[in-house]
Specification:
single chain, 493 residues, Nucleotidyltransferase, domain 5, 7-stranded mixed beta sheet, 23% strand, globular, binds adenosine-5'-diphosphate
């Protein structure tokens, strides 16, 4: 058996998988979110550690301690980009963890853009010069927490993404390690040379001695001991890359889409990086046996959160699950479109002044139509991202593997398949993120062979395209028309 530590943005979970990759137990606990100022988002790193340890111990002691003998290894997957700084001597964090969503360094990033660094940074890291990624957050800590520079000067400052923070605290050896999928989200890791990059460190003013050693994604990260039992930490990956692995997207051109609050689509681009010309980012997917796999990544800001808005904002539904039933009353000939650009549009449109829009309202439009338009928007936005990805990768996707809360909506998955005109494959195990690092840890400790994994992933339902493609094309054209109409709304007023 393998335990996955799944350290997410709002909760800590531990999941126990057996050799058939079935979930045996899950434990979960939420932790606090701090919003000290507008645009600032922080977590208490100590609380994360305590919360994660608590759910880990809860799982280890289940079944009358019966699992302890069975567990072969631990995998860690985590919220990406979020950064912690701590004192090497005392282990005490200097400041709260600065979360990926935090935009306090937007102006700093703009200054670097004005100085002309964007192109170089994109070539080296595959990323955009944005406050989202870790480096500007690290710079903020060095510039604003006086102790940080003092400690760095004495070689006593450690930085880490959440995987690194957990590894350092959980391993008996106090290892300061990370994996390439997490390192590739910092803006400091050169994804071509696979090293921390001196020029990037210089641009962001980050001392080299504060950064962790980069191991492979399946590797020996150290030993965790509980109650006399020792478990190797054998797999580490950032959450989206882990989901790509858990979905067994091992071949060049394979892709998965996660339908959560937003959507995250990743496509495996094989052993070479593909630079995007369409607003996507390039990232390391994983590194195993000395081989590095790369991915293209695109995200949709508003997906499931559009459904939450129906529930909490305009209150026309009671819960997300009932949407599938509600839309049975929708008018099949209605041409209502909802572009949920609540805070602008991401890839591939990149229009921050776009605002949300419902277009095509008629006197008989009802809540079923609005609900259907909201679900449809998830599928349309996914097609927008996939189209950009296919252009960049010069390939056509064969099948889309799906996961995340909203993939349980059968209407949505069927419409997605019709819209993309390819099969949509929903696995039995929807916990792809946790499964990915279980696989990574499992191949390192010998529980599975890499070649076996694709057979272990089992499909729950395959959605095949059924609709007339001319009809689908005209719907998609109409969607694109709607998207164009909501662009630059903010500057028009
Ligand atoms: P996250 O990990 O981003 O918190 P989840 O993967 O747990 O998200 O998915 C939850 C999101 O999916 C919510 O925004 C919810 O509105 C949406 N969702 C969940 N179930 C359904 C459903 N059956 N139909 C449509 N949307 C759903």
């Amino acid at each position: 058996m393998i335990i996955s530590i799944d350290q997410g943005t709002t909760s800590c979970r531990s999941i126990l998988f057996d050799k058939a990759a079935e979930i045996i137990e899950t434990t979960q606990k939420e932790f606090k979110q701090f919003f000290p100022k507008s645009g600032w988002v922080e977590h208490d790193a100590k609380e994360i550690l305590e919360c994660q340890t608590e759910v880990l111990h809860e799982l280890l002691t289940k079944n009358g301690n019966g699992y302890l003998q069975e567990i072969k290894a631990i995998g860690i997957t985590n919220q990406r980009e979020t950064i912690v700084a701590w004192n090497k001597k005392t282990g005490v964090p200097l400041y709260n963890a600065i979360v990926w969503q935090d935009t306090r360094t937007t102006n700093y990033c703009q200054d670097l853009k004005d100085k002309g660094f964007e192109k170089l940074i994109k070539e080296k890291t595959g990323l955009l010069l944005d406050s989202y990624f870790s480096a500007s957050k690290m710079n903020w800590i060095l510039e604003n927490i006086p102790e940080a520079k003092q400690l760095a000067a004495k070689n006593n400052l450690l930085f880490g993404t959440i995987d690194t923070w957990l590894i350092w605290n959980l391993t008996d050896e106090k290892n300061h390690f990370t994996d390439p999928s997490n390192a590739s989200r910092t803006l400091l890791f050169n994804i071509n040379t696979l090293e921390w990059d001196a020029e990037l460190l210089d641009i962001f003013g980050i001392p080299r001695n504060t950064l962790p050693t980069v191991k492979q994604s399946s590797d020996n990260f150290g030993t965790y001991t509980y109650n006399g039992h020792s478990f190797p930490i054998n797999g580490v990956a950032g959450d989206q890359q882990s989901a790509l692995f858990g979905q067994c997207c091992f071949e060049k051109g394979d892709a998965k889409n996660t339908y959560g609050t937003g959507c995250f689509m990743l496509m495996n681009t094989g052993n070479s990086k593909i630079a995007s010309n369409n607003g996507l980012i390039s990232t390391i997917a994983w590194q195993i046996d000395g081989k590095t796999s790369y991915a293209l990544e695109g995200s949709v800001f508003v997906a499931g959160s559009g459904v939450q808005w129906l529930r909490d904002g305009i209150q026309i539904i009671n819960n997300a699950t009932e949407t599938e039933d509600i839309i049975k009353d929708a008018n099949p000939t209605s041409s209502l479109y909802f572009v949920p650009a609540f805070a602008g549009l991401g890839a591939p449109h990149w229009n921050m002044n776009a605002r949300g829009m419902l277009i095509g309202l008629t006197r008989d439009t009802n809540r079923a139509d609005v609900t259907k338009a909201t679900l449809d928007a998830m599928a349309y936005q996914t097609k927008d991202v996939l189209t950009a990805m296919e252009k960049d990768a010069k390939t056509q996707l064969n099948t889309l593997n799906v996961d995340g809360g909203a993939c349980n909506n059968n209407y949505l998955m069927q419409f997605q398949s019709d819209l993309l005109n390819i099969p949509v494959d929903r696995p039995i195990c929807k916990e792809s993120t946790a499964l990915g690092v279980a696989f990574l840890a499992g191949i390192q400790c010998g529980l599975w062979k890499f070649e076996e994994l694709s057979k272990i992933r089992t499909n729950e339902k395959l959605f095949l395209p059924t609709k007339n493609q001319n009809e689908i094309k005209s719907k998609y054209n109409k969607w694109n028309d709607a998207v164009e109409r909501c662009k630059d709304w903010e500057v028009n007023v």
